[in-house]
Amino acid sequence: MMIKRNRRIKRSFLVCLFFILFFATLGLAQDIDFNTSVNRNKVALDETIELSLTVTGTQDVSPIKLPEIQGFQSKYVGPSTSISVVNGQYSSSISYKYILFPQQLGRFQIPGFGITIEEKQYSSKPIDLEIVESKSDSFSSQAANSDQEDLGDRIFLALEIKKEKAYLNERIPVSIKLFYSNIPVQDVQFPAIEQEGFVFEEFAKPQQYQDSINGISYNIIEFNVMAYPSRCGTLSLGPAELTCNLLYKSASRKDSLFDDFGVFSSSFFDNFLGSHEKRPITLKSKPIEIEILPLPDGAPENFSDGVGVFNFSVSASPQEVNVGDPVTIKMTISGDGNFKSLTMPSFKNSDNFKVYDPEIKQENKSKILEQVLIPKSEDIEEIPVISFSYFDVDQGKYKTITKGPFPLIVNKVKATQPLRLVELSGEQPTGVQDDRLGRDIVFIKEHPGAFFSLGWVLYRDIRLWIFVIGYALFVVGFCFIFRQQERMKTDTAYAKRLRAPRKAKKRLKQARQLIDQGKAQEFYDTVFKLLQQYFSHKLSIPEGMITDKEIDLFLSKEKIASDIVTKTRTLLAQCDAVRYGAISGDVENMEKNYEDLQSIIDFFERM
After folding, report:
1. What is the pLDDT of residues 433-448, one digit of tens each?
2. DSSP code of 575?
3. Each residue of 216-267: pLDDT tens digit?
4. Which residues, other chains included, contact 46 with Cβ-Cβ below 8 Å and sequence gap of 6+?
5. What is the pTM of this model?
6. 324: exposed, middle or buried (C-beta count within 10 Å: 0-12, 13-18, 19+)?
7. No. of H helices and E strands in the chain?
8. Gap between the Cα atoms of 20 and 17, Å rounded
């Protein structure tokens, strides 16, 4: 058992090593590319532009020094790397980010940059930019329109075809491309397109890639489909429509059930999980005019209605048979064209052959026919010619491809020869098989036989589940600690509230020591600083700005028990009286004030 287990572990290790080497090899085989892009090419004088210099295919590139650009000052932000595997294709890239600050109005150009990688020169295209005046507050009423214009620049739909003229029933490749830049998109649906005057195939699997337009980098999702015009004249293809969801960061939830529980408050979940909402958007492309030409006169009699560019091949097997034995004819039409309307040529019953109905199947760019012929006499010497006619869209004329005749030897049937059957079985070769009873029957076993153990199975090992659960708890704990530390750094008020009890406890300890030492002046100084510091954290006001009036105003506004309000005001008054020499404190009063101070802190910590 242990030997089998070790073998499985070794096999798993070798499989992992294979995939690591495989992806590493893919990374070495990448094509290197260099381009520049900006997040916008029209900005106000008080806005900024993000410039990216991106090298795809390698990350072993030194930082690229940015030359002076007319009309701008620049600041280097840092590099950004990316590694991904999409549809089995490995991709790595590195981008060097710069912020450009406009200095004057007008039209400017970021020149093309040149770099050398592995002793080969690469260059990028220049980018045109325009700097306009800053928008004043008086134009705030136009915010909705400007947002819509900006959104239209960041996400849009385009319909493309490769030709403006086509023949009736010609196969027309159509591309529908979704462009989006610097905006999160989800739930992209397949597009819908106006079908009046056209017949469409099903959409192929969409492709995803990136490209730059006017210097702006776009993510592109391309949908490809084949269209076939069904009538002549000038037709309008499209428009195409596509629906997707845009992700917007939403405001924090309010009045949550957990708002009073610190770590479990809605703000914590917003920061930890992110708070976004989906907003549907429907994009519409512009239609395209296309001229559909009729097929010219003079079509052959055996015209197959095929429009495109095709190849035609025919084979016959076997070439030597007995009378009554089957001969299989296989015809294949391949190429680029309309296979939907194409009619395959076939044989008809004649004096020499008995003909069975053909079996036809269509693949991606081919159509295949298989047909069985039975020779009726030994006088047959050949299978006659067969022709295929179609309209060639490249040359604009009809073409006919002729194959055959095919030589055939037909022998007389021997008296001892058994009966034969004709079969067409998909991928299996067509031919003759013996008619033996029971060859396709598998009998049910009456007894299951002996059972045996499969041995060690990974998913049944308790150690695996302990590791998975432990790892999940580690990830959740790490994320919680990381978010907590980030919030402590960025949310000053939150950090002060968390540190307030610890600092208050420290000063309470100091006050206790001062009571034991009988130092009244130092004791009341410590008590006043404790209250001042504690309430500054509660009110999110700098400690030096907290006064008796601020604390009293806070106590009067909040719904606080009257005894706590009285204790706080009395304690503050006692601190002022001792600190400024109006009275002298004794140990008995310090003990009482110390207890009041503890009750005040405990009360506010329970709020």
Report:
1. 444 444 556 666 666 7
2. H
3. 888 999 999 988 888 899 998 889 999 998 876 654 444 444 444 444 444 4
4. 134
5. 0.48
6. middle
7. 9, 34
8. 5
